[in-house]
Amino acid sequence: MGLHLSVIILALFPTVLSIYKYIIYPAFLSPLSRIPNAHRTSSISPLWILYKRWKYQDPPAVHAAHLQKGNAISINCVKDGVNIVYAPNFDKSGWYSPLENYGVQSMVSMLAGGPHSIRKRMLSHFYSKSYLLSSPFLSSITSTLVHTRFLHQLTTFASSQSPLDIIPVVLAFTIDMNTSYQFGIAGGTKYMQNEEERNKFVEFYRMRMSCVFWRQELPELTKWMERFGLRVVKRRYDDGHRQLEKIFLRLCDRTAVTYESLTNRKPSSRPVDKLDGGVKEEDYPLVYAQLRSSIETLDSKATGLIPQQTERQRLEIACELFDLLIAGFDTSTITLKWLMYNLCQHPDIQEKLITELRSMDEPLLVSTSSGSTSFPSPKTLDSLPHLEAIILETLRLHPAAPGTLPRLVPQGGATLGGYDNIPTGTRVSAQAYSLHRNADVFLDPEAWKPERWLDAGPEMQMWFWAFGSGGRMCVGKSFAFYRK
Hints:
Elements: H1 2-29, H2 47-54, H3 58-69, E1 78-79, H4 82-85, H5 113-123, H6 129-134, H7 136-160, H8 166-183, H9 195-210, H10 212-217, H11 219-227, H12 235-262, H13 286-303, H14 311-345, H15 347-358, H16 378-382, H17 385-397, E2 407-408, E3 414-416, E4 419-422, E5 427-429, H18 432-435, H19 458-463, H20 477-483
Parallel strand pairs: 1-5
Antiparallel strand pairs: 2-5, 3-4
Helix pairs in contact: 2-3, 7-8, 8-14, 9-12, 12-14, 13-14, 14-17
Cofactor: heme
Keywords: Heme, Iron, Metal-binding, Monooxygenase, Oxidoreductase
GO molecular function: heme binding; iron ion binding; monooxygenase activity; oxidoreductase activity, acting on paired donors, with incorporation or reduction of molecular oxygen
């Protein structure tokens, strides 16, 4: 009888232990158990939020939970305090690792703050507002792209009286703008003029993004299933990402030839197509040159060798610039899409904007006969209150990145939203979707009202979070405003 009872106890022990570990402790004893749950199952399972993320429904679902249960909620991660969570001591979680390209890390995929800060310093000057507003180089690029490509395409369609889907044109413009700033006009893409190449790029990009959920949220399960031939991520989606990498690496390699000729470097032995003709000012690969020079100098100091590009440096440069493109073109297209939509819904606001733009000393006029390529100065555009208000309100109501930006609680735990002892390693985050809908700050938050920004106080600015905050906020924030 005693032996029989011992066998029963041994058999039940793993079950009892599992019930304690996965149900009783997280639901009733964990420090996180004091935080209201976004869903009744959130304390014991992430399935609810995983489903919402898989269906791209997580920002409104999390926001609804905030409205019902308060500023801090538990969904198997904790939502709270922007100033705390996005401080330097909260490192990124592994959620960012699948955003690597070419097998190396960019600023986005770097988890620790130190390497990120070093890389950010390499580029921050050329993406700062002060530089962008006073750069003749960028003004030249902008004028060329707007007049010879964007407006030319619009006037062509207008004269033919053919219907035009403006979204692909805007998307092509944002890609061309990004790559032209990185590689110069001649070295950048020409997707406004080459619809076939643009469509290929967009198709590969959508393939890449369609598999991000599995790589970010369930990386170990995804890898385990693939070992047994069970692919939740279709092989063609991975192939699409590799095709994107190839397209961008060709841009980098072609630009390397120009850079090496300008700096009297030994030409690369890689077989690439050289750019035609001499290098004009607008063709200088400004961002590429800055990043390459900085990376080579940093490695030279570490090794004591003469700066010379290695294969790893080649991939690091491609990875970083590729990430800047990916982070910039889709988000800008989303914002401009909503901006145009809301202007169409509010003709009175549209008329105010037109009047303001025409009042400039150098208004942007479309002329099919004069051949004028004049363009308002960036500082003039930056000073237009209605234009700024329209952009800010569009970013508030329709942030291109509305969801979670995860961080990890550091050693020693944290206090968030009045809840003490949040354990080390807990995934925590905030989301722009909810911050931008604080009804105490933004009255009637679901309405598009640009006029609210004409006399905005510091509190509205504090709650505006379209580009994140802290040392790892979006380095391209000012460039994004410039494009819009």
